[in-house]
Amino acid sequence: MKILSGIQPTGLIHLGNYFGALKQWLDLQTCLPVGMEKNDCYFMVVDLHALTIPQNSAQFKQNIESAILDYLAVGLDPKKCTLFVQSQVVGHTELAWILGTLTPLGELERMTQFKEKSQQHKDSVNAGLFTYPILQAADILLYQADGVPVGKDQEQHIELARTLVRKFNLHYPLPKNKALFKEPATILPKEGAKILSLNDPSKKMSKSLGADSYVAIFDRPEIIRKKIMSAVTDSGREIKFDMKEKPAISNLMTIYKLVSGKDFAQIENQFKNKGYGDFKKDLAEKIIEFLKPIQDKRIKLEKDKKKILSQTLELGRKKAQKEADKTMKLVREVVGLPEIK
Ligand code: AMP
Ligand code: TRP
User: Residue 33, preceding bond cis, omega within 30 degrees?
Assistant: First the structure.
């Protein structure tokens, strides 16, 4: 399968990003579960998407480079997948423009992320924030991806990409009823598609809810302990998985499961006659243990970052550009744009 996904360079990766997206990327690049066919994976830093929110140029540049090093630290391997930066490949914005001419405004107006972000950034609701999902559809179609591994909040955007595939294929049919694009599937993780905020379990874990909302994968142990110990809990004192009645503790149990590999019954059993405090203390240690190798690797990468970055990005950009060029050649042809020789 051809796989594509991206994450914005926001300066930090939290457990929601890790378990919603990155963990799936790791599994897909190594073809897990075992026996799965080999995948052709494209993973990118979507810097153009991040521009929809005001950025400081110097910091932005650093965040983009840092995101690539973060990907390497979690275990993405440039030998097994194509790692690149969206803005370094020509074609994303061009295809987005063409898709934009096929996108009804109503489709964009109902996007939850647009509604939320335009609320959050009331004084800078720019056109990019509105057309954001068109660029995302272009990202996916440019590589003719079959599957897009993301967290639950991105489902609506992938659905729009499918809608745009249908519109494009209808508007620009190929001879013999063939179609240029195929509809990409959303790939959600079984567990962790929506990790909730630590201080408000009615919302998803997110950088925009403040540092107490999330554990970042590079948070130091003492910060992780502090954040977990002050996480909101539900009434009662039983450690029991019940998303409806006990969303806060169920969310923490989900994280426990993901970092420890234990299932819910084992966790419930282990903390049968214990309280929330004991559970949280152990959870913090399990998270710290889980993140330690990633954090150690990130420190190592930092030491040689210039070389690592230039090698990784050059390799990724070339491979991605080749794929993008193939698609854009076909798109230009079918749309009727003059050929670029
Ligand atoms: P973002 O930081 O919004 O660019 O998100 C990057 C990736 O992480 C996307 O695939 C999201 O769906 C995923 N993601 C973000 N927040 C969460 C969350 N709280 N739980 C699960 N996945 C998430
Ligand atoms: N919109 C996605 C997010 O906020 C990031 C993204 C951009 C993306 N282009 C993509 C994800 C293409 C998957 C495929 O998380």
Answer: yes
Closest atom, ligand 2, to C-alpha of 49: 7
Give the whole-angstrom CA distance, residue 280 versus residue 59. Answer: 34
Contacts of 85 (CB under 8 A, 6+ apart): 44, 45, 47, 64, 68, 313, 316, 317
How confident is the chain (341 residues) per 10-residue block, as mean pLDDT?
Answer: 96 97 94 70 98 95 98 96 98 98 97 91 89 98 98 97 98 92 97 97 94 97 98 93 96 98 97 95 98 98 96 97 97 95 82
Q: Which ligand is nearest to the CA of 133?
A: 2
Any ligand 1 atom below 6 A from CB of 45: no
Residue 147: predicted pLDDT? 96
Place of tokens 């997110």: 206
What does the chain come to in residues? 341
Helix (H, G, I), strand (E, B) or coil at 173: coil
Given the CA of residue 13, which atom of ligand 1 is nearest to it? 2
Q: 173 C-alpha vs ligand 2 centroid, how far in Å? A: 27
Catalogue the active-site residues.
117, 204, 207
Buried/exposed 160-188: b ≥16 CB within 10 Å, e otherwise: bbbbbbebbbeebeeeeeeebbebbebbb
The closest alpha carbon to 67, from 56, 53, 83, belongs to 83
